[in-house]
Every structure is written in structure tokens, then in C-alpha cells.
Amino acid sequence: xxxxxxxxxxxxxxxxxxxxxxxxxxxxxxxxxxxxxxxxxxxxxxxxxxxxxxxxxxxxxxxxxxxxxxxxxxxxxxxxxxxxxxxxxxxxxxxxxxxxxxxxxxxxxxxxxxxxxxxxxxxxxxxxxxxxxxxxxxxxxxxxxxxxxxxxxx
Amino acid sequence: xxxxxxxxxxxxxxxxxxxxxxxxxxxxxxxxxxxxxxxxxxxxxxxxxxxxxxxxxxxxxxxxxxxxxxxxxxxxxxxxxxxxxxxxxxxxxxxxxxxxxxxxxxxxxxxxxxxxxxxxxxxxxxxxxxxxxxxxxxxxxxxxxxxxxxxxxxxxxxxxxxxxxxxxxxxxxxxxxxxxxxxxxxxxxxxxxxxxxxxxxxxxxxxxxxxxxxxxxxxxxxxxxxxxxxxxxxxxxxxxxxxxxxxxxxxxxxxxxxxxxxxxxxxxxxxxxxxxxxxxxxxxxxxxxxxxxxxxxxxxxxxxxxxxxxxxxxxxxxxxxxxxxxxxxxxxxxxxxxxxxxxxxxxxxxxxxxxxxxxxxxxxxxxxxxxxxxxxxxxxxxxxxxxxxxxxxxxxxxxxxxxxxxxxxxxxxxxxxxxxxxxxxxxxxxxxxxxxxxxxxxxxxxxxxxxxxxxxxxxxxxxxxxxxxxxxxxxxxxxxxxxxxxxxxxxxxxxxxxxxxxxxxxxxxxxxxxxxxxxxxxxxxxxxxxxxxxxxxxxxxxxxxxxxxxxxxxxxxxxxxxxxxxxxxxxxxxxxxxxxxxxxxxxxxxxxxxxxxxxxxxxxxxxxxxxxxxxxxxxxxxxxxxxxxxxxxxxxxxxxxxxxxxxxxxxxxxxxxxxxxxxxxxxxxxxxxxxxxxxxxxxxxxxxxxxxxxxxxxxxxxxxxxxxxxxxxxxxxxxxxxxxxxxxxxxxxxxxxxxxxxxxxxxxxxxxxxxxxxxxxxxxxxxxxxxxxxxxxxxxxxxxxx
Lengths: 154, 786
Description:
The structure holds 2 protein chains of 2 kinds.
Chain A: E1 3-8, E2 11-16, H1 23-30, E3 49-52, E4 55-58, E5 71-73, H2 86-93, H3 103-117, H4 123-129, H5 141-153
Parallel strand pairs in A: 1-5
Antiparallel strand pairs in A: 1-2, 3-4, 3-5
Chain B: H1 15-19, E1 35-41, E2 47-53, H2 55-59, E3 63-68, H3 69-74, E4 106-107, E5 113-119, H4 122-129, E6 133-138, E7 163-170, H5 172-181, E8 184-195, E9 204-210, E10 215-220, H6 225-234, E11 244-247, H7 263-274, E12 280-283, H8 286-292, E13 296-307, E14 313-325, E15 352-361, H9 375-392, H10 397-404, E16 411-412, E17 418-419, H11 424-434, H12 440-449, E18 453-462, H13 470-475, E19 484-490, E20 496-500, H14 509-521, E21 528-531, H15 549-575, E22 583-586, E23 589-592, E24 598-600, H16 601-610, E25 624-629, E26 638-648, E27 653-664, H17 671-691, E28 722-726, H18 744-761, H19 772-785
Parallel strand pairs in B: 1-12, 10-11, 14-15, 20-21, 27-28
Antiparallel strand pairs in B: 1-5, 2-4, 2-6, 3-5, 7-15, 8-13, 9-10, 9-12, 13-14, 16-17, 18-26, 19-20, 19-25, 22-23, 23-24, 26-27
Helix pairs in contact in B: 9-18, 14-15, 15-16, 17-18
């Protein structure tokens, strides 16, 4: 099995992976970073979204072996020195989550959205940008509010 | 109201772990020496199994076991059950076909469980499953429920006409008599489309057997772990209850689909024993969720409403064919019967109602409760009939509703329910105001100038929740009581642990239940923890569904808190050397009336545990109380949802312009959380109306909509932000006055959308889901006609 080394949440990690091992499985099963979730098999739901070199990527569509040398940030890596990321805070404050399963992917997508679109996001922009993330609990109302609020504080 | 008590908009306590990625769902849990299960599923909708050759699979690398239905039978593993007995009109009991955990002799839907492979890795299990050679003789599948009774093919041998039961409710003759003399009759043919619940966390299970103790542990994605333990013990026969622990940790949404007891969780337990006690884990792929989670709805209904010449409703009758799928799932039989026909009176005074329900088997996945369960189907029937009747009678739909609203309480409907409290005029009026109904005509004209069609539709719904008095549901066929239990443990330092039989899988119980404790005991929210989802910790409980956790679960906690307070008063009286009657308890402090003597709740807790200052022959040491609460009635949340939408006739795309919901849930514990429940429910209802529909191929019985590429889940861009309002009439049947809020949106929304859409398009009826294709065809035909 090929070895792969990458940086995950600021720490250098390495491991042996099969060629077919997906990044999400490497994160969940080998690094025990279970905050990144698998909600579908077809790259639609977005629960597995992480940042690779600063861009939001569905980690179920990426082979772990292809991430050699990459900087990966998962939901576990957003808080710094015990302080929540503003987007995490915003989701809590605005009740942007219910069962919590899609939440890590939503938050990572939201961070990426702000990185690309800036801190002032219209409702229409947020809704359009959430095309790749499915939530079954919230009806998106409070997710949209959370992202707008979190964006303004980033 | 305190800052954290009843009625406070408190941010959720449980969110900390979820937003940090520290939630603990079943698939996040790993046990030492664990193994992986993979299920070989039927590729056919209906086939006889001639032979299963597992030889090559058993020899494959890493394989520990390959098990089939024959092995399950040999080990006396019982089948799955349906826990609600329905009797047909002729008095015969429902005909439940056998539901083995692995197929025996026949497969009955695509996705049915044929065999399981247990291996060291998931990849090895999957690879080995490909080596299992199953010889099938294909049989004609029964796909269309309306055709099922006539179909020569039988899903279950010996169950004639593929009919599980033919049930009715109401007085047929009296209802028919009203129709004969009615001034106006409105009739609709309604298909309540089949839905796939799609909690974003797929189902998962880990079964673990300890040979030394002959004890099993099951981690599972369940809304009711105690019910799972009961069924797996008493009916499947895996182990007696004290030898089986069921843990439902963080669960990523349920919407009904995780109430039921499924084959996979049973097989993981059994397989663990078969391989000597190594844990066996399984997590569904999404495609398995589509195939083998219990689906929802799927009613084919003919419904009629009779009115007199004054626009008063005099009778309603309906005939429904309810698709049960291939097997009767855990509570499937209750959904199209006592959760459906009992709500056909809606918010209206309808003197006569009669409903007949034929429950039929088809070669499709089992159908059971999905958010709302029967009540969305009833609301859709009633609200589409009412809207259509108003249009036919040339009456304003709001005025027609007002003319027929129930206004006196209690109100006995002709279909069992006794509505206890409500104000339907208030919710309709408030909704019209919030929706700016007066500005609608101008908005419609503006849309018209842009070439768009605008419509508005109401849904004044009612539901029966909190299910329900145990004796009542027992008399209707339910195999269990539907009370709830709670235990309140006060620690010596005054912190509080509440053990509840309710289960939170997104509803925020860790916050709302703690708010109740904080409110009652004056203890800060962060000093209260809520424990649920583990049969070794919580004595027993009936779980969370039917919007029952507030009305029933919190009522049990409230009763336990009453006992805690009563005992704490005794302790405080002794310690402060006062008469018990002189003790007052307010804001977390016990005081002696007319004096400055005072003890905090924590001090009394400590005194209860050190037990130095009261006679332990009269008062036991400690401060821990339990309670079971059995409700005295259903609760009746109700309200009015108004959908305003715009259709682009060129593309068929429907845009929801404005959504207004005014709901009466009785007392609100945490409005922030309640609003979230309403939002989510509306989204699911809009999904049913516009985007979602499970489709099986009529010829082959293959599920066509088996992934998120084919089954259209509502996205953020499909929905607007919602405008919410509340009316509050207290529920008289529980101590907190709560009615329940979890399902309202899903119940109300489909009719509101379709009433608005038919208004916009100027057509009498449309099928759900009204996808752009459906809408475009209607719009194009309309334009061609013009």
C-alpha cells in the first residue's frame, strides 16, 4: 500500500492507504477525525466537505493518495486555541443545526463561501452557494442566517 | 420567565459538540476487534430463491461468516413484527406476512436482505458478497397499489388479493345519506406521493456479543432504543431484555424512519454471536437507505366533500388504498388508519365522516411513519377538498373555512378525536395579516406584467400528537402503552441529571428539558444534564415520534420534579426546624414563611444526602425521583400556513415567494427551537409538493429514484425564508400546556403549496410532486388554449 503524508489541521500526518481509499475514509478511520461525515455515495449531500489548500472539497470524491503534501482542514481544525471560529459561533447562536450531521460540511462550505465571496453575503448568494449541501432538518432558514452572520464576523 | 426557563430563546447546549465535529454518531464508534457486515440484497422485486451457494464467498479472504435466511431459521431468529393490530370491517385480524431478517424462500422487493457477509474489512465483505451465487426464479412484481388487489401475483402466499386489511371508520349510512341530499359535492382523486425519509445520517448498527456474560450490546440509529430492545428481545428472541443493552447515541435525524426495528440491527447482533463475540458493524450506503429504509405516504384516495346550500360542510367520505410495501413494518398499520382517518374532520365541524382504507402489499420497500404519519395525508385530503369546494361554490376560501371552523371546545368529531382547545379563527386571521393578504392582488398583477403567474393557497391544518393515552391506543390495537418515563437525580452538590425515555435526534431535548428543570428548581442551565438513548441508564421509555417528547416526555419530567420539590420541602423543613407547611420554594430557594431563614436548592440537596438532620425512618436519604406520565388525551396542534408562489410558464419553475405560518402549539418552551422545527417541517412538505417522489418502475419494480441524483431533495435555493407567528391556547391535558411542534410544517405544507399552485395556474388539480415538467405542461396547455 502506498504511503501518503499531508498536513491535517496543522499537524503533519502520514499513513498507508490503498489506492482506492477516499480522503474521507482516511480522515475518519485512520486519523479518527469523525467530524467529517458521509451522507451519500454520490457527492451530493456535502456532509464530507473539508478544505484542501483552502478550497472546499467533498472529501468523498478525493483519493487520499492524491492528497500528498496537501493542507487539509476539517471541522475539528477550525477552532483555534480553544476559541470557536466565528462561523461555528454563528451556527450555534442562530440555531443553524438540529441533528448536527450535515453541520460540519455546512460550516466548511460556509467558510469557503466567505473566502471566495467576501463577508457581505446576500441571502440569494448563500442559497445558491449551498447547492452542494443538503440539510433535512432545518429547512435552511437558520443556516442561511447563520452563514450571513458568521461571514460578517470573519 | 427566567433567562433560561420556560419560554426563553436559549441557544442549544448540545450544539457545542456538533459544531466542533465532536458529535458521536454510531458510525463514529469503534470497538476493539470489530468486523464489518455487508448485506447482499435482492436485485429483483419479486422472485423465488431456488438456491444460495455461499461456498466461494466463505473461502474469500478475510471472511468470517456468510449467513442466510436458512441459518437464521436454524438459530431460531424470529422475524420482525408489526406492533399495531388492525381488524378489518369483517372482524378478521390484519394479515401480516412473515418478515424474516434474511429472506427465506422468496424476495419481495429490490433491496430485500438475502445474505450477510461478515469480514475483517468492509472491502473484503463486499468482494465476497459478489461471490455468493443466488439462483432466482423471477415472479411478476406487484407495483401499483391500486392494482394490487386484482393482481394475480401474490406478494405473500396465502394473503389473498394482496390485502392486509380492509378497515373503516365512521358511519357509512349516515354519511351516504348526507351526500344524497347535499346541495354541492366536491370530488377529488388524490395520490399522496411516496416519499423516502432521507435523514442525512444513514442508518447504522454495531452488534457486540460478550460470550462470558451471554450479553449483547447494540449501538443503533434509533428514535426509541427501549422499544428496539423490547422487540428484539420479546419477538426476535436474540436475548432477554436484561441481557441486551441498546444504545442510540447521537442520531442524525430520523423523521420516523428510525423508529422501526430493521433487519440489519438484528443481524449484526446475531452475527456477532455467530463469530464468537467480535463486534459486527454496518453502516448503510445512501443507496441502501433509498432501497431499504421504510418509505412514507403512498396513498391513492378518492375523496368527496358534501355541502349544504349555505356553504356549510355536512359530510366527508374517502376511500384510500394504502401501500404497505412488501412487509408490515413496525407501526405501519397504524399510519393509514388511526393516524389518518381520525384527522379527516380537520379544523371543521363536519357532522358525518366515513373513511374506508384498503391496506395492500406490493413488491416495494415497506412503508411506515414518516414525519406527520397519516396526518399529512389527512390534511391534504381535507384542505384540497375544502379549497376546491370554496372555488366551486365561488366563496372566498378563507370565508368558507371560517364558516365551518370548530369554535366550541371540547369538540367531539365523528372520527374518535375530541379536540380540547384551539382558536382557528385567530391563526387564520393572524396568518392573513402576516402574509399581507391585502397586497396580494397588486403582487399578482405585478407578476402578470413580468409574464409570471402568481397564486396563493392556505392550509388550515390540525394534527393529533403526543400519542397518546395508553388505554386508548390499546383499545385501538397498539401493542404497547404510549406513556413516557423520567427520572430526576439531584446530586449532593445540587446539580441535576434527568434520565428520559424520550430520544433527541435533532430536537434539542438537552436544552429544552434542561430549561424545564432550570425553571422549576432555579438551577442554572449548565448544571443540568439530560441523559437519554441508553437502556442501561434509562429504565424504560417509549421514544420520540409523533411530536410527543414535549407533551408526554416533559410531562413525566414535570411530575418527577413535583416529587423532588415535595421531598426537598420536607428536608428543608427539618433542617430549618419549621413546619413543612411554612416552607416556600421560589427561584431556587427554600424559605420559612415570615422569617429570614433560607436554604438554597443545593444546600437542601446536600442535606438530603448527608441525612444528619432529619429522621431517616420517616424520610429516606437522597434526592432522586422517578415518574411515568400517561397522557389523558391526544394533543391538537393546529394552525394556518399560507403559501404564495410564482410560476414561470416558460420553464415550469415554481418559486415560493412568501411563506407564512401561524401555529398553535400551546406553551412554547424554547421559541428558537420551535421555529427551527417548523422550518424543517415546511421544507419537507414543500419537498413533497414540488420535488420529491419515490418512483418504482411499473414493469420491473426497480426503484428509479435511488440516489440524490434521481430523488430531488429540497435545496436551499428551492425555499424562501419563512415568516412565523404563534397563537397560544394551552393544552388542558398535560401540566405544561404543550401540544407539540415537530410535524406541523410537514403536515400543513403540501396542501398550502398545491392550493397556491392550482390558484396560480387556474386548474382544478395537479399531481404531487408538481415538478417543473408537470407545471410546464399545464402552463403550456393553458397558454395554447388562450
